[in-house]
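Please check this record.
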Amino acid sequence: MALSRMQKLFVKEYLVDLNATQAAIRAGYSAKTAEQQASRLLTNVKVQAEIDEAISKRSKRTEITADMVLQRWWDIATADPNDIIHLRRTCCRYCFGKEHQYQWRDESEYEQAVQRAVNDAKQKSLEGGKEVQPIIPSNDGGYGFDKLERPHPKCPNCLGEGREGVHIEDTRHLAGKAKLLYAGLKTTNAGIEIKMQDQGKALENVARHLGMFKDKVELTGNEGGPLQVIFDKGMTKDA
């Protein structure tokens, strides 16, 4: 027996998003019993055969295989979010200075700091009407500060805690699993919000594909009513 018009519509709609309940509703089944109808349709041998054939044809047409989709889900599920954004602790200015004194990046940075001190003293002298001596910063800690170094565990200033900061990778250069995990960004009042694919959902898709979940299938009668059992003598009885 061929599929009914609504069954054919269900197959067509199911292939859109593989959501059986919504497919049943879009095919014209009652929203109240759509979930039960969807379960019944998916257990119908002819309906399932039609779905399998349609998926097979689409796979050949698009050259997309189930293995390819499964691999993509797995890559998303196992991607490391730290490859996109992470919190890192870096050293403070005293971590690696000589005898843990304030360390400058280079002589140019130190000279700029000295000049600011001189300019501040001049400004205060003009405002106060008397000479103010500049407070020249010390360079006893030396040069070579690198803000990306790990904190010194015995630093007396930060006590080995360093300075925390959020780092976002240049998303133009993401590759591999990180590129699949990244789903865009948006600017909010609080700053930049990084969006990522749902790794939990991706892992669930992998598990379902591999048959790790045993979904409960409920069988119902017409329009969601009780299942009718047909006996040899033509009598019916509610299941």
